[in-house]
UniProtKB/TrEMBL annotation:
The modification 4-aspartylphosphate is found at residue 55. It comes from the Bacteria. This is Sigma-54 dependent transcriptional regulator. SUPFAM superfamilies: CheY-like (SSF52172), Homeodomain-like (SSF46689), P-loop containing nucleoside triphosphate hydrolases (SSF52540). Residues 404-418 have a biased composition (Acidic residues). It comes from Pseudaquabacterium inlustre. Residues 398-428 are annotated as: Disordered. Residues 160-390 form the Sigma-54 factor interaction domain.
Length: 496
């Protein structure tokens, strides 16, 4: 029976080459070997492999020469590079050249098996248990980089809405980097959708079936960072009443997304760097480190190069994280995508509210949005559309529903100019009491006031949404949207 995976091992040291071969054969792989770049290239001319494992230093060149040839010819093989201990520059260079992952000498055979299995999309099995059965999709893994994901349009990529050249470039880059293990840094302003990019990288990769763990580095108190990232053992400190896994352990086999990485304090940056380099973590209170297999994707709205220059971010960590950078463009740079994004957001709002059809933007409203600068990017657009949906009485959103000035001077003239649209009739309701102290968050406070009013109206009218809405001057559609936005879920008695 033909082995499901074929590998090529390239190393000029016979003893090491034999060790790698025996280790892989015990895992059920079909293994060929070579001692030089040219011998390896000859082997590659004779057949295709699932992966190539090469030492960095070879008699007639180095592993990067082989990687670049494989990449230039668009060959399907995943590539793994073995570098000398502590040679971080070579490791980063290999990842930039297209390597799936790298190992450092002396090679830990357990880690060696794990990295090879990860490159092939296999579950890691204890040695000598034989090969993992090959799924049909895995059997086609040697079909080449013109993969079916790109042709079929992966759902994760379709979530990144937009037909602009900038977004096409982002999606193409995601497809390419998803095949490897190289750390990715997603750069972009707040509200551009950096987490969507990270999730797409995970979902398109061979790690899609494993966990995706998202961490907001700026939201964790500094004194809790180590425990949250690496976990702890029972009794390690006061309150540690049981063993707890950290983010690295939770993401085992999958992807760890470090959002707002630029907010990490320097002390934690040092510990994170060690975890990435050693591929292992030591929980607080533990005596030994535990190996971890995670892919790191990080994101920031800051310019980390400036942060490094100012001494707020470690240069060595920056180099580790910034192997591949994906820039998420702000909304003002892709206005052509505005209509598609707005339609997708409105469809989601309608689905969440359980109404159909989804409202649409009038031409005038669409033109007004196109003139807006969107300093808050896609997140701001979503908030504007949520507001508009709750205010509009029909299926068509008009400019006045958006709450934006019609032009640069509109806000200044607002007190003098009459309203162009007649006010909608609203039944009188009691004004909310002004709080003794100003609220810390006006939006949250007003949402709570609105929620209380809606709940009281529903209770008064025996949970009949039509009657409750009418008592407040709202249509049934407006009532549904407001209830969905505020999370009001009540048992429905009587008809609407």
């Amino acid at each position: 029976m033909t082995a499901p995976y074929s590998l090529l091992v390239v190393d000029d040291e016979p003893d090491l080459r034999t060790l790698y071969e025996l280790t892989l054969i015990r895992e059920g792989y079909d293994v060929d070997s070579a001692g030089t770049v040219e011998e390896a290239w000859t082997r590659l001319g004779e057949r295709r492999y699932n992966a190539v494992i090469t030492d960095m230093k070879l008699p007639d060149g180095n592993g990067l020469d082989l990687l670049r040839r494989i990449e230039a010819q668009g060959r399907p093989e995943k590539t793994l590079v073995i570098t000398a201990y502590g040679s971080a520059e070579n490791a980063v260079e290999a990842l930039k050249a297209g390597a799936f992952d790298y190992l450092t000498k002396p090679v830990d055979l357990r880690q060696f098996r794990s990295v090879v299995a990860s490159a092939l999309g296999r579950s890691v099995l204890p040695s000598a248990q034989g090969p993992t059965p090959v799924a049909p999709a895995e059997a086609a893994a040697v079909a080449g980089p013109g993969d079916a994901l790109a042709e079929a349009g992966h759902p994760a990529l379709r979530r990144l809405v937009g037909r602009s050249a900038a977004m096409q470039q982002v999606r193409a880059l995601i497809e390419r980097v998803a095949r490897g293990m190289a750390p990715v840094l997603v750069q972009g302003e707040s509200g551009t959708g950096k987490e969507l990019v990270a999730r797409a990288i995970h979902d398109v990769s061979s790690r899609a079936a494993m966990p995706f763990v998202a961490v907001n580095c700026g939201a964790i108190p500094e004194q809790l960072l180590e425990a949250e990232f690496f976990g702890y053992r029972k009794g390690a400190f006061t309150g540690a009443q049981e063993d707890r896994a950290g983010f690295f352990q939770a993401a085992q086999g999958g992807t760890l997304f470090l959002d707002e990485i630029g907010d990490l304090p320097l002390a934690m940056q040092s510990k994170l760097l060690r975890a990435i380099q050693e591929r292992s973590v030591r929980p607080i209170g533990a005596v030994a480190e535990a190996p971890v297999n995670v892919r790191i994707v990080s994101a920031t709205h800051k310019d980390l190069a400036v942060e490094v220059h100012e001494g707020r971010f470690r240069q060595d960590l920056f180099y580790r994280l910034n192997v591949i950078q994906i820039r998420m463009p702000p909304l003002r740079e892709r206005v052509d995508d505005l209509a598609d994004i707005a339609a997708a957001v409105l469809a989601r709002i309608a689905t969440d509210a359980g109404v159909s059809p989804a409202p649409r933007l009038s031409p005038a409203a669409a033109a007004l949005l196109a003139r807006h600068g969107f300093p808050g990017n896609v997140r701001e657009l979503e908030n504007l559309l949520h507001r508009a949906v709750t205010l509009t009485g029909g299926d068509l959103i008009q400019p006045q529903d958006l709450g934006l000035p019609d032009d640069e001077g509109a806000e200044a003239e607002a007190d003098e100019a009459p309203d162009l649209a007649p006010p909608r009739p609203v039944a009188p309701v009691a004004s909310p009491a002004v709080p003794a102290e100003l609220p810390a968050d006006l939006v949250v406070y007003l949402d709570q006031v609105e929620r209380d009013v809606l709940v009281r109206a529903l209770e008064k009218h025996r949970f009949n949404r039509t009657a409750a809405g009418a008592s407040l001057g709202l249509s049934l559609r407006q009532m549904r949207y407001r209830m969905a936005r505020l999370g009001i879920q009540v048992a429905e008695h009587g008809g609407d």
